[in-house]
Structure formats: C-alpha cells, structure tokens
C-alpha cells in the first residue's frame, strides 16, 4: 500500500503460489524506493510490461530482411538481383545477426558480418553493407528501432574499415573466342531452357538480364529485330538488336512450343513458375555444372575480342552492339542513328564464327 496524490493505493506483488517470500520482500522494497522518488510503482510496472511486450513483438533482423526483399523485389531488374539480395542477407553471410532483434543490432554486430569478407570479397561486402543499411533504415521507418544506423558508411564505418579497393572485381572470366564454336556444339546437345537462353545471349552479345527478361512482344521475327525497352537496359535507353539467322532459329523453335493462349507479354525463356522468367542463376549454374571457370557476361568479352582481332568493323559499331555509350554528349547528339544495318552485318559475321559445323536436332524441328 502507498499514497499517491493524497490517496491510498494498493499494488499486488503476485500470487503466493508463484512469488516466494524473499521475492515479495524485494518487490515491496523496489516499490517503496519508487514512491520515495515520487514515482507511481503501478505506472512504472505498466510501462515496463509495455516495453517488454513491444520488445517481444519486434521481429528479428532475418525475418524482417526476408519480408523486405519480398516487398521490394518488384523493383529489381531481374531475378538475379533478387537472388543476390536473398543470398547476402541470408545465413550464408548474415548468420551472426539474423536471429537478433532489429533494435539490438549494433556497430559491432555489423562489423562482425563485414570484416571476415571485407578484404577477400570487397565488392560483395560493400553491397552487403548497403543492403544491411537499407534493412535497418526500413526498420526505423516502421518504428521498430531508433538511433543512428550502425551500417552507415560515411562518417561511421568508413572510419573503421579499410578504404574500398576500386576495380577489385576486374574483368568477368571469359572464354577465348576461338573456343566458342566448340562450346556451342556441346551446348546444343542440351535440351534445357537455360541452354537455349545462353546460346541466344552469346549470339546477341546481350546481358543476362536483357535475355532473361525478353518477351515475345519485343521481337519482330519478320524484321529480324529484338527491341529491348529502355527500362530494362543498363544505360536506360531503348536498344535494337539485329538477329542473325541462328538467333532467329532459336526463337522460331521456341515459338513452336508456346501454348496457344500465350500472349505477347509472355517471356521468351519462361521459368518453372507460371508467368515468371527463367531464374537469374540458371545460365551461370549451367556453366558451373560443366566446371567452366567463366561467366555468362564473359561471352560479351569474347565477342568484343573477336570483333577487334578478327574483323575490320569500326570500334564504334562493336561498342554499339554491346549497348555501350560511345563518345561524349556532343558526339552522341550528332550521331542520332543506331547503325542497325551495320550492326546486323557484324552480328551475322559473329554468328557465322560461332556456328558449329553441324546443326542439331532441336534447331531442325
């Protein structure tokens, strides 16, 4: 019993069945101390219970990160980016913090995740840091944590971690262009959709995301042109790709397998889930299973090396075929065309170089 604002109040200390005599005495002493400090022990206990309940309701970093990726994956350009976010924020890299409550994540926790890979995998570590920062910022926006973001770089982690080594990634491992024809011969024996997507990527010298996100509505088989919209291009500009005969053959073979109710909004290289494209890692895994230490992106380098060393096509045409920005703003302003027909000659020559000696069954059907 105690008095508050001139009125007598009572506060229970718990059931005699659950609270022993010594614990009851301690609780009573704590309550008397609060009254001596002019605090209401009932209100104090209520506030403590509220804080405890809120703490119990705050999700773990792992659960919140997984939910956040699901919410924002629609803004990613392709499935590969979704995979990378899930992979880096998952147990493979964030095992030390995934079970921690969002409000408990500290700078030391973030460093424990980043330091083991900061030097060896600096690019991956840098991207992971940014993703952890994004997760914690989102948690703060939802009222699930307060204070500064422990994953912030400028003025914080940049004082605790070595400076990033720019260009650490180097070039994507590539196959020598002289070996590409033999590789395509073997590739055409495989019936997987990933094999067809990879061959199409090689023949068009396109990026993985551009190929995997390709839709039938983007292709004009009569004009033999594939138009990639600006929102799917790295440079943010529409890119027309002239299709050489082998690339057209791939499309015609796949078109014959399309369901009758497929519309122009369907993916050319569909995945296992209806209405979704082939996985962003499908082509990379195909190379991995063949124990090839190269990347899909590396075939763009194979194409570029072949164009420079084996042909007389101008550098600008080869760069345009790769959808690279060539020249300064003034030069680009005067060069309004995209040299489609000149690039068609280049891509036809590349396809001829890549063409195996024999045509496989899947292309004939």
UniProtKB/TrEMBL annotation:
One of its GO terms (biological process) is DNA recombination. One of its GO terms (molecular function) is DNA binding. The keyword DNA-binding applies. InterPro entries: DNA_brk_join_enz, Integrase-like_cat_sf, Integrase_catalytic, Integrase_DNA-bd_sf, Integrase_DNA_bind_dom, Integrase_recombinase_N, Phage_int_M, Phage_Integrase. Residues 24-55 have a biased composition (Basic and acidic residues). Pfam families: Arm-DNA-bind_3, Phage_int_M, Phage_integrase. Residues 170-347 form the Tyr recombinase domain. Residues 1-55 are annotated as: Disordered. Keywords: DNA integration, DNA recombination, DNA-binding. SUPFAM superfamilies: DNA breaking-rejoining enzymes. Belongs to the 'phage' integrase family. This is Integrase family protein.
């Amino acid at each position: 019993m105690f008095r508050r604002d001139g009125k007598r109040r009572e506060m229970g200390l718990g059931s005699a069945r659950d609270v022993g005599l010594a614990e009851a005495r301690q609780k009573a002493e704590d309550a008397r101390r609060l009254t001596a400090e002019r605090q209401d022990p009932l209100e104090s206990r209520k506030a403590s219970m509220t804080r405890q309940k809120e703490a119990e309701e705050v999700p773990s970093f792992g659960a919140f990160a997984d939910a956040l990726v699901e919410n924002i994956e629609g803004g990613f350009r392709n499935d590969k980016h979704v995979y990378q976010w899930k992979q880096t924020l998952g147990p493979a890299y964030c095992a030390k913090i995934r079970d921690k409550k969002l409000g408990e994540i500290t700078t030391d926790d973030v460093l424990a995740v980043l330091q083991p890979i900061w030097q060896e995998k600096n690019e991956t570590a840098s991207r992971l840091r940014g993703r952890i920062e994004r997760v914690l910022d989102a948690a703060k926006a939802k009222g699930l944590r307060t204070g500064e973001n422990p994953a912030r770089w400028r003025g914080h982690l940049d004082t605790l971690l070595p400076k990033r080594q720019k260009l650490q990634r180097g070039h994507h491992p590539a196959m020598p262009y002289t070996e590409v024809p033999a590789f395509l011969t073997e590739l055409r024996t495989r019936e997987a959709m990933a094999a067809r997507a990879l061959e199409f990527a090689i023949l068009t010298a396109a990026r993985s995301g551009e190929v995997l996100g390709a839709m039938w509505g983007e292709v004009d088989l009569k004009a033999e042109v594939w138009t990639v919209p600006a929102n799917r291009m790295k440079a943010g500009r529409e890119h027309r790709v002239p299709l050489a005969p082998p690339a057209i053959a791939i499309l015609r073979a796949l078109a014959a397998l399309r369901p009758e109710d497929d519309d122009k909004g369907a993916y050319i290289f569909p995945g296992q889930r209806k209405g979704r494209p082939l996985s962003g890692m499908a082509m990379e895994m195909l190379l991995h299973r063949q124990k090839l230490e190269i990347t899909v992106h590396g075939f763009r380098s194979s194409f570029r090396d072949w164009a420079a060393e084996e042909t007389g096509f101008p550098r600008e045409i080869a760069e345009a075929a790769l959808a690279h920005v060539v020249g300064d703003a003034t030069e680009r302003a005067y060069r309004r065309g995209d040299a489609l027909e000149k690039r068609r000659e280049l891509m036809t020559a590349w396809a001829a170089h890549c063409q195996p000696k024999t045509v496989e069954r899947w292309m004939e059907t």
